[in-house]
Amino acid sequence: MPHPLDALINEKLQQAKEEGAFDNLPGEGKPIDHGHSPKDALFNRLMVEAKAKPPVVTLTEEIAASRARLASLTDDAPRKAEMKILADLQTRLAIEKELHQRYG
After folding, report:
1. Which of 43, 59, 62, 67 has its CA 20 to 30 A from that of 89?
2. Does some domain include residue 80?
3. Which residues contact 2 (CB under 8 A, 6 or more apart)?
4. Is residue 4 in some structural domain?
5. For helices 55-72 and 76-103, angle between their N-to-C axes, nearest 10 degrees
6. How much is the pTM?
């Protein structure tokens, strides 16, 4: 079943094309690099252009930094505080991974 806005979207795209909005764009005439998965090509390109990282990558980096801080701490109170931070990050990472497995 078509989406109610399909006709409007197609009309606006056609209008933009006729006005030259798509002329001289970067990469014009070059094949799209689909990477490993064609269905994710646009998402991946947008993430790279926006210099954004998926939550799993960000959390993994934060866990590595937390582990490095923990290794340098010797006093009990700061170690316990950092261990709580590390446990929270690991829990959040596990949740993100489970969400990715369930919903892609």
Report:
1. 43
2. yes
3. none
4. no
5. 160
6. 0.56
Between the alpha carbon of residue 63 and those of residues 32, 78, 84, 88, 101, the distances in Å are 34, 16, 12, 9, 20
Would you say residue 79 lies in a domain? yes
Residue pLDDT tens, the chain, 104 long? 678 888 889 899 999 999 998 888 888 878 766 566 767 777 778 888 888 888 999 999 999 999 999 999 999 999 999 999 999 999 999 999 999 888 87
| Residues present in the chain in total | 104
Q: Which two structure tokens, joined as six digits, stand for 51? A: 């210099």
Contacts 24+ apart (CB under 8 A), 28-32: none
Instruction: Report the domain count for the chain.
Output: 1
Residue at 70 is within a domain:
yes
Between CA 58 and CA 65, with CA 63 as vertex, the angle to 5 degrees is 95
